[in-house]
Amino acid sequence: MSGSYYLLKVLGLSGIPRIVTFAVGIVSIPLVVRALGAEQYGIYVYMQSAASLIEIFASGGVGSAAGKSMAACRIERPGCLSHELQKWVRLQALVAFSLLIPILGIGYLAIGYIGFAGISPVLFLMVGLSVYLSMATTFMRNVLQSLLAFRSLAGLDTFDSLSRNSVAILVALLFPSALGLVIAGVICALMADLVGIAIIVRDLQKTKHEPSIDAARVSPLAMRPMLRDSLSFLGLIAATRAYQALPNLLIQRMLGFHMVGIIGAFARIVEILALPFTVIGNAMMVRAQEVVASGMKAARRYWDMLWRFVIVAFAGTISFFFLTERVAKVLLPAEPQAEMLFNILTPLILLRIVSDLFAPASDYVGGLRARVFYLSACAVFQIPFIWLVVRYHGGVGTAVTLVVAQAAIVSGYLAIAHRSFFHGAHYALPRDVLVAAGVIVSAGVGALWVPQAARLPVFLAALSMFFAIIPVLRRQYLSGRFLLVDFI
User: Fold this and answer.
1) How far is CA 43 from the centre of its chain?
2) CB atoms within 10 A of CB 211
3) pTM confidence score
4) Residue 215's pLDDT band (boundaries 50, 70, 90)?
5) Which long-range contacts (CB under 8 A, 24 or more apart) does 469-475 make?
């Protein structure tokens, strides 16, 4: 899958699972959050944070390293795909099962030490099981993405999303508790694994038609470089999960599960709204090596395209800001703080999207080590910062701190990605991006002067008018030209 319409094809194939996720999520998320309440949903988010830390060592970074290796194999030696995948599967199984008992034992003791109120041993064991099943699904997603098998990936994502959200609705109606949600996740992860295995086996049958590959071309994939790449990605995953999970553990200790529930509910919103841009970032990530190999001009055009997607995300984030009151009342009607906290947390939507667009690609072109070190430092330094602010400013301080910390992370990611793609050369934002940003800011500020109920319609009307009458914006955005991949 290549050519100018590559991204349109990817978005088209990925559109079904995203539409399903969005549509079912609109129903399931309010039902689940309202049925469980901030306390029980906070326990669920807390345990998911703990699960993300467990998965760091259980996976060993093998899945991400396999994705990078399979992407290179697809270009250089397509006949070796099946052979290389078998080696990566064996390594993943060896790492995961050799560490099973120590990881679960240490995790159980750690969570018990941090605070065990509301968390039963059964809940912890179910979370551990879900970690291992979900890890296998993630491994298969990385492989399908690297093979550019976006049609198959769309099928797996559609099944996984539909099953998880549908079962979550049943949990909200029949067994509204954190344990119910975790058990539902275990069942859905197991079904997704079975479907994923069937899809990959089917897709790899196609590689049998490739020219035969002799042993000399297969041998370069040795265990030492596999472990080295896995450890590099393990560092990135560990830093990422620590950065994401440790604040929830700290906030729970200081403010309770209900605050974790509010923040977790908003994080779910961010995840859903960022889905299309996450798809774009992942689709472009596996072609980053081609972009760099094509020269500096291709790299600049690649970045121009990503910044135009940031403009779309910026407009969407401002639009959501005008809806936070309604969203908070739907999700958490019993939490008076939710609306104010949602307002403060809204920039996280844009920051998440910028990160998803730029950061993953830099890992494929030399920025992985720098990103690991930078993120690790931020994960460590954010803890005393959050503790100090939360101690004196409570929930509002928590929200502000999370936004500031994420802004610092994304700024560093952009600097690392710039160095990886341009190696010190200058890059300037295209004129249409600067003009569009100015228009969005002006429309957003202008909409603040009208009654709250009219702000979103006024903002969208102003955007439509300016994007239609300004030639550079009309040519680039309204025509859909920014969706075309023309950098190679």
Assistant:
1) 22
2) 7
3) 0.67
4) very low
5) 470/435, 470/439, 472/431, 472/432, 472/435, 473/432, 473/435, 473/436, 473/439, 475/432
